[in-house]
Design brief:
This protein is α+β, with helices and mostly antiparallel strands and 239 residues long. It has one domain (25-171, 178-234): Gamma-glutamyl cyclotransferase-like (Hypothetical upf0131 protein ytfp, Roll), CATH 3.10.490. It has seven helices and seven strands. It has a five-stranded mixed β-barrel. It has a two-stranded antiparallel ribbon with strand order 3-4. β3 and β4 (79-82) form a beta hairpin. The longest helix has 17 residues, at 205-221. It is globular, with a radius of gyration of 17 Å. The active site is at residue 128. InterPro entries: G-Glutamylcylcotransferase (IPR017939), GGCT-like (IPR013024), GGCT-like_sf (IPR036568).
Amino acid sequence: MPSDPASLQPAERHTQAPIPPPITEPLQYPKYLYFAYGSNLSPSQMKLRCRVNPTHSATPLAIATLPQWRWLICEAGYANVLPPPGLRVANQDSETAHKIPVSGSEDAVYGVLYQMDLGDERILDGYEGVDTDAAGAGAGDGVPVSIRPRVQGDGSYNKWFVEADVGTWLDGAEGVRAGLENGEGKVPVLVYVDENCVKLAGPKFEYIARMNRAIRESLDLGVPAGWVEDVMRKFIPRE
């Protein structure tokens, strides 16, 4: 089983557990939070993945939404999100993508926010199969470079930087809230987006258990049960 994320095929990158090299540099926190919407909704999984500073990076800070985004299981067998009209590139603006239904009555994607150390973010890039050598995105791609700094390239997911609406701050998030919230309940977030896979599909078998754990733990944190039933349970069967 390959242990280097860069050597994995796109569909495999989500199922393997790459072993990161030891990182001894000082802890660093970016000026944005990580918006988890798939199996990383589970703090338990985040603790296993974040090797640099798991106590900090895997602590859930808030429940938030991406308005007018859409949640799906794509043909790769994993969770994905579709940006709203006006922020779509390539396959995201295809007839196939237009078949993705609105995500619940709220027309939004719910997620859990974490503040990851930059070392842990690099580890997560490996799990998500980010092509760190991909070319920079051009102004003609239709999405601001501030939101989408690079093209997806050969990666399974790309890194997007947008604003999320915070619904509930969790215990212990006071310092982060004071430093990042803009006064209107919005915070800058990192979202991993697969720009290529936008076809509705079922989950890979191994993903079902991880998503059920993610659902259980996110419900305990405050993700609305009605939204989970209306959106996620259309794709993720109960165990």
